[in-house]
Amino acid sequence: MKILVLNGPNLNLLGKREPEIYGSQTFEEYFEELQQQFPEHELRYAQSNIEGELVNLIHEVGFDYEGIVFNAGAYTHTSIALADAIAAVPTAVVEVHISNVHAREAFRHHSYLSPVCQGVMAGFGLYGYKMAIDYITTLY
Ligand code: DQA
Questions:
Q1: All structural domains of the chain with their residue ranges
Q2: Does domain 2-137 have CATH number 3.40.50.9100?
Q3: What is the ipTM metric for this complex?
Q4: CA distance 75 to 65
Q5: Which atom of ligand 1 lies nearest, measured to the CA of 21?
Q6: How far is 51 from 56, CA to CA, in rounded Å?
Q7: Most exposed among 20, 24, 29, 99, judged by the fewest C-beta atoms under 10 Å?
Q8: Cβ of 101 below 6 Å from ligand 1
């Protein structure tokens, strides 16, 4: 099964960025753990700070891969273009947030992506990515 783990803006700074909220592990380190946890699946990792590049990645894999685990960062709260891209492709998309966005500022409570995703993981730290992959593997 092919699954894209996709991170949006500022998530390249994981490990250095507000570690009290997002933890001190880099995503590259965590991704290696994920690959060890799912050796039977083909996991690919991509990150971009650019909204259009995220749209292009969703188009690229969305008719081919079995799933996308997507942390869109702040674009979650702003991007109709990403919501439209997710709605346009048949692959299952799971929305992930490291922090519990509902326990934070009000502007983080609304997601344009949740209505077009299969489900949402928020507040479980990096473990949320693993749970999202676990879920996708149950679909096929
Ligand atoms: C985030 C939550 C967003 O509100 C924020 O803009 C991020 C990270 C999270 O993983 O908790 O960049 O998606």
A1: 2-137
A2: yes
A3: 0.99
A4: 22
A5: 11
A6: 9
A7: 20
A8: yes
